[in-house]
Amino acid sequence: xxxxxxxxxxxxxxxxxxxxxxxxxxxxxxxxxxxxxxxxxxxxxxxxxxxxxxxxxxxxxxxxxxxxxxxxxxxxxxxxxxxxxxxxxxxxxxxxxxxxxxxxxxxxxxxxxxxxxxxxxxxxxxxxxxxxxxxxxxxxx
Length: 141
Description:
This protein has helices at 2-70, 76-94, 105-123, 129-137. By secondary structure, the chain is mainly alpha-helical. Helix 2 runs antiparallel to helix 3 (105-123). The chain is rod-shaped and about 100 Å long. The termini are far apart.
C-alpha cells in the first residue's frame, strides 16, 4: 500500500506540475509587468508634467513681458489689455501646479489656454503656443 501511495504522489506531482509552473510563471510575469508599468507611468507623467509646466511658464513670461510693455501707455485700449493680462496672471497663480492629481487641474488649464487666446487676440499676436516653442528651439545662449 505504501508503494502505491508513493506512485500516486509521484503521478500527482507530474500531473500538477503544469498547473504549478503556469501559476508561478503568471505570478512572475505579473510582478515584472507591474514594475515595468510603474516605470513607464512615471516616465509618461514626468514628460507630460514637464510639457505642461513649460506651457504655463511660457504664459507667465508672456504676460509679464506684455504687462511691462503696456504699463507705459495710458490709453483706454492699453488699460483694457492690462486688465486681461492681470487676469491671466491671476489664473496662473491660482492654478494648483503642486498637485498633479488635483481634480480641477484640467479645467484650470483649459481656462488658462482660453484666457491666453483672448489676450493674444487683444494684442494681435499669434495664439499657437507651439509656434513660440519652435522659434525658441534655434536660440542658443
